[in-house]
């Protein structure tokens, strides 16, 4: 069986994938010539997200260029570096806790030519989302 083959694929309704930085994310060993997600991240997104509802949790200490993958992702959360409070993300993902969030900065397109007449941010400053907890029966 291959690395991403799943014998229970017909029973999976939602898939959550945690993507992020390599072990070293800063200084010498963390230097990267680009801002793309490292493999196997793109491979998993391309092979799984088109088949089932797909939630991607991006855990990193820096921004990543993910725009090519966004159309195939149902939900994306940029969690940055969670530290000891990672369980808070699980509470939200499983519907135990509602949330409200606003972007503290603009998410720029690439190339980032702010001020050009055709400049159109991916998500503007203050872009927001709200979700309520899921009520269980």
UniProtKB/TrEMBL annotation:
<feature type="domain" description="Glycoside hydrolase family 3 C-terminal">
    <location>
        <begin position="27"/>
        <end position="127"/>
    </location>
</feature>
<protein>
    <recommendedName>
        <fullName>Glycoside hydrolase family 3 C-terminal domain-containing protein</fullName>
    </recommendedName>
</protein>
<dbReference type="InterPro" id="IPR051915">
    <property type="entry name" value="Cellulose_Degrad_GH3"/>
</dbReference>
<dbReference type="InterPro" id="IPR036881">
    <property type="entry name" value="Glyco_hydro_3_C_sf"/>
</dbReference>
<dbReference type="InterPro" id="IPR002772">
    <property type="entry name" value="Glyco_hydro_3_C"/>
</dbReference>
<keyword id="KW-0326">Glycosidase</keyword>
<dbReference type="GO" id="GO:0009251">
    <property type="term" value="P:glucan catabolic process"/>
</dbReference>
<dbReference type="GO" id="GO:0008422">
    <property type="term" value="F:beta-glucosidase activity"/>
</dbReference>
<dbReference type="Pfam" id="PF01915">
    <property type="entry name" value="Glyco_hydro_3_C"/>
</dbReference>
<keyword id="KW-0378">Hydrolase</keyword>
């Amino acid at each position: 069986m291959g690395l991403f083959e799943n014998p229970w694929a017909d029973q999976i309704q939602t898939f959550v994938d945690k993507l992020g930085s390599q072990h070293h994310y800063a200084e010498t060993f963390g230097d990267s010539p680009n801002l793309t997600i490292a493999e196997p991240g793109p491979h998993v997104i391309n092979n799984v997200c088109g088949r089932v509802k797909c939630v991607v949790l991006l855990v990193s200490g820096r921004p990543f260029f993910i725009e090519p993958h966004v159309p195939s992702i149902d939900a994306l959360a940029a969690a940055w570096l969670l530290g000891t409070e990672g369980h808070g993300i699980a509470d939200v993902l499983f519907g135990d806790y509602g949330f409200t969030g606003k972007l503290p900065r603009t998410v720029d397109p690439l190339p980032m030519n702010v001020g050009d007449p055709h400049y159109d941010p991916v998500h503007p400053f203050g872009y927001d989302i709200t979700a309520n907890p899921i009520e269980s029966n």
